[in-house]
Amino acid sequence: MKSQPLHLVIQGPGVNETTVDALRRLSSAQDIEALDAQAFRLLDAQHHAEVAEYCRARRIDHGYVPATAKLANFRLLAMDMDSTLITIECIDELADMARMRAKVSSVTAAAMRGEIHFAESLRRRVALLEGLPVAALEHVYQERLHLSPGAETLLAHARTLGIRTLLVSGGFTYFVDRLKARLKLDYTRSNVLEVRDGKLTGRVLGHIFDAQGKLSALHETCAELGIAAEQAMVLGDGANDLPMMTAAGVSIAYHAKPVVRQQATYALNHCGLDGVLNLFP
């Protein structure tokens, strides 16, 4: 059986006329389709090891995408929050306000690399926030939390196609709930910080929502929608995103840790979240 044609999508700050022409030759592409000034689709391209090396050296995101692939083929778009939908790690910003940033950030980084079990890492980090006023959470939301570039464009386009959205986060409901209302997300799951007398106690209420929780949330949402996991696209950046990313039809590592980039279907290292729309028109 003849394999399905592949298109090579290239995008990023390193894309210019010279790099497009070089990649057309390296991939033996038959034609070129311009998507915007820094994004092109090279039609009927071939896999060549030199393509990845060339792109890596020039800050170019690339992906071989089946010719028939469309965003409309998916029924669920699921994503992580911290460092994926938004540019910050909320717990690190809270730690900064508690003058514990260095300690918390080192544990966060180790957890995202998969070196510490997520639940244990979260307990350690939240414990360091004991006594922090709840007002600090509002300060982080209002002053430090920013959406990743292209987030609103991607979500708006998904909404026009009738694709449902799921935000799953090892972070906290305080931020997730506000983003749900602001971005008109359909489903969310995250952790609840315990508060007493207007201050954080340093504990998380209930069972910690971790990698297994994200996977379960994906399956539960798919079941509610009556779709298979293969009809879901998942975006994430850390090791605790891998189980749900592996279960999905397509996974996209967004500015992710190496362990995640290695296992994802596609990786966006230089583009914004709207780069998904160039991969899947």
Helix-strand layout with pairing:
Elements: E1 6-11, H1 17-26, E2 31-36, E3 39-43, H2 49-57, E4 61-66, E5 76-79, H3 81-85, H4 90-97, H5 101-112, H6 118-127, H7 135-144, H8 151-160, E6 164-172, H9 173-183, E7 187-196, E8 199-205, H10 211-225, E9 232-236, H11 242-247, E10 250-254, H12 258-263, E11 266-268, H13 275-279
Parallel strand pairs: 5-6, 5-9, 6-7, 9-10, 10-11
Antiparallel strand pairs: 1-3, 1-4, 2-3, 7-8
Helix pairs in contact: 4-5, 4-7, 5-6
Tell me what the structure shows.
It is a single chain. With 281 residues, the protein is an alpha/beta fold. It is 42% helix and 23% strand. It is built from 13 helices and eleven strands. Helix 4 crosses helix 7. The longest helix is centred in the last third of the chain and has 15 residues. 45% of the residues are buried.
Considering the chains and any ligands shown, give keywords for the structure.
7-stranded mixed beta sheet, 13 helices, 281 residues, 42% helix, 4-stranded antiparallel beta sheet, alpha/beta, 11 strands
DSSP summary: helix tally: 13
Helix-and-strand structural type: alpha/beta
Unreliable spans are none
Query: What is the helix content?
Result: 40-55%
Which geometry do the CA atoms define? Answer: elongated
Mean pLDDT: 95
- DSSP strand count: 11
Compressed to H and E, one letter per element, the order equals EHEEHEEHHHHHHEHEEHEHEHEH
The neighbouring-strand order within the major sheet is 8-7-6-5-9-10-11
Q: Could you tell me the strand content as a percent range?
A: 15-25%
The radius of gyration over CA amounts to 20 Å
Largest sheet geometry = 7 strands, mixed
Distance between the termini: 26 Å
